[in-house]
Amino acid sequence: MLAHPLRPRLRDDTRGAVYVEFLIAFLPVFVFFLCLLQLALLFSAKLLVEHSATLGSRAAAVVFGDEPGPYGEAKAAAHTYSKERSRTVRGAVLVALAPLILDDTVASVGVAFPDAPGATGAPVDTPITARTGSAMIRVHVDVVVVCKIAFANMIACEAMPNSSLRVRRIPAESVYPYQGASYAYE
User: Tens-digit pLDDT profile for the chain (186 aa)?
Assistant: First the structure.
């Protein structure tokens, strides 16, 4: 049987070639766009974490010098890193991170009060004056952010242990002067 003379042969047919070329070129560009979007979200999260560390250090400068009454502590507990005062400073950090917490972008938040950069947090009930010679309060905030953008989260983030989530750890630290002011309520 002879082929129809007007019908082109399949190997000479170029219909649909532009569509296939578009798909080949579009996929890498689309993944690149998703990665840019994921990085933009991570940078905005980093800004919020740095802001929360600043607010935490400002809150600590006031809360640790506050009178012991609102925290249910003895009079000698003023100017110390107590559990209740640390919880109040953590609340200030969480308020600053509220936009990320409300949309489930934050997996965990850690707040510590180290003596120096990279040091561990202050032990509970330690007087501030005994720890710091420079009268500065340092607040370290460590946030684990969930990466939500498909495909890009595999490139920009690490796998969370024992979970299917992809996350990125974002640390921030802020220092604020502590004048040791005493506050009294009437």
Answer: 555 665 667 667 777 788 888 889 998 999 999 999 999 999 999 999 999 999 999 998 888 877 777 777 766 566 777 788 889 999 999 999 999 999 999 999 999 988 766 666 655 555 565 444 557 888 999 999 999 998 898 998 999 888 889 999 999 999 988 776 666 666
Based on the structure, what is the number of domains in the chain?
Answer: 1
> Where does 18-153 show beta strands of DSSP type E?
80-81, 106-112, 126-127, 136-146
In three-state secondary structure terms, 166 is strand
Q: What are the backbone angles phi and psi of residue 143, rounded to the nearest 5°?
A: -120, 135
User: Which residue do the tokens 């004048």 mark?
Assistant: 179
Answer yes or no: are the C-beta atoms of 141 and 175 closer than 8 Å.
no
Q: Give pTM, 2 decimals.
A: 0.79
Tokens of 108: 């965990």
Q: Is 151 part of a structural domain of the chain? A: yes
List the domain range (segments joined by +) for residue 44: 17-177
Which one, of 113, 119, 46, 55, lies nearest residue 86 by Cα? 113
Asked if the structure places residue 100 within a domain, the reply is yes
